[in-house]
Amino acid sequence: MVKPRINIRKVLLAILWMFVGAGVILVLVAAIRKSNAAHCESVNIAVVGKGPSFLLKSDIWSMMGSTGPKQFVGKPVAAIDLIALERKLNSNTWVQHAELFIDKEGVLQVRVTERKPVARIFTTLGNTFYVDSTGKYLPLGMGKPAMRLPVFTGMPDKLKLKNAEDSILLTGIKAISEKLGSDAFWGAQITQIDLGADGNFDMVPLVGRHIIHFGNGENVEDKFQRLAIFYRDVLTKTGIDYYRSVSVQFEKQIVGEKDGPISTSVDKKIGLGQSPAPPLAVSNSSTLNN
After folding, report:
1. How far apart are alpha carbons 255 and 213 in whole angstroms?
2. What are the tens digits of pLDDT across the range 209-248?
3. Where is this region: Disordered (predicted)?
């Protein structure tokens, strides 16, 4: 019977890899021990997000249960409970996500991504909040100046995004808010948006006594274009207070109401003579078609 031959080369390679593996483990253990023995050198706090921050560094310190870096600087790294600190930060309504780590220089890095509100709301129960793009209601904050955002009234006291109606409502609020935030004229002209029981929006202008019946939050850009045409080609002739309401709720229509409804279609020329030079800065070059 022939005995199997032992492959010396494979045996040596296996032994070599065992030594390499053991060496890697020893290096990692040494690095961990060195890291744990190291001390925190400083703390760096960064609030991440677009636009001005609502949260200040002092707010972050307060959430972490501290008044400044003295509690951490000089402290052994192993004694700093990063998970507990992250949990404290993430429990704050204004914090979308918090991440803490200690870099190779011994600096405790605190990175906080804050929620960004898109509107200020007043509920049917009389409460007021900010609301962000996820439907989260955010407290205004004691001692902080109010943020300049579109104002919506008549809102439910809580949004349930699993509810289809609430999800559609939030989508409309975001679309309208984005338009008012990007258009200087409409952002200044629209002072308040009221949510009706039927789920439609009525807008209150700064100039003029008319109410703008906007409908739901769909086709926002098209509705504002039609509204701009009405302002430019009709209200410049009749005066800003001629109509008590203007509706762009229905597609391809602008309806102005005084004593009785006067309907104009964007497919037809308004028969009021030649329009003067438009006094408004209309963001789109659309005109009434013949």
Report:
1. 9
2. 899 999 999 999 999 999 999 999 999 998 888 999 999 9
3. 266-290
